[in-house]
Amino acid sequence: MKNNKQQSTMICMGLILGLCMGVSLHNIGLWLPIGICLGVCLGACMEKQKKKKQIVEEEYISMNMVKIEKADRKDLEEILKLQYLAYQSEAALFGNKDIPPLKQTIDEVIEEYEQGLILKMVDDGMIIGSIRAREADGTVYIGKLMVHPDHRRKGYGRRLLEAIEGYYSGKRYELFTSTKSINNIRLYQNSGYKEFNRRIFKDDLIFVYMEKNKESKV
Fold it and tell me: Containing domain of residue 201, as a range?
């Protein structure tokens, strides 16, 4: 109802503008329809801007509702299920599901939990993201950055990466991803990571190794 009122207002303003221009230029027949069209266009532009603002506000609210915290042992099975789901898109890049994240067992996740740190991102009681890391010889090895497919493109990956770095402030960070994971590589580059090595895992699977704070290693 409110949108219709705004559009009607814009059309009326266009109509008045068209009448004024028509009277001043002695050509109402020409300027009246131009004014109406202008009013319609203005109304459409205002509605588009309003929707865009609403989307931004909703994303901002969503960003502030989720929280990142240390995972508990009881969270590991849910995180592994999320891992199986989140890495389906990665497997699709290679045309098969024979990749390490989809073959990992709960016992292996428990081992990583006991040897390092696993963070979880929670939204309304549901784990929608996770990341893990371990420190050795002055380097923090980061891995398994994942976000639920329904919650991607909201900046959550960057938030998780920043959160895990915050737990190991001032250290050298190292991570890896596949050469086909263009979005991951872009995220890491935008976060200050630089490539320093590549390794062939299989014929169609090449890992890119990236680092940050190289000078911080002790």
Answer: 67-216
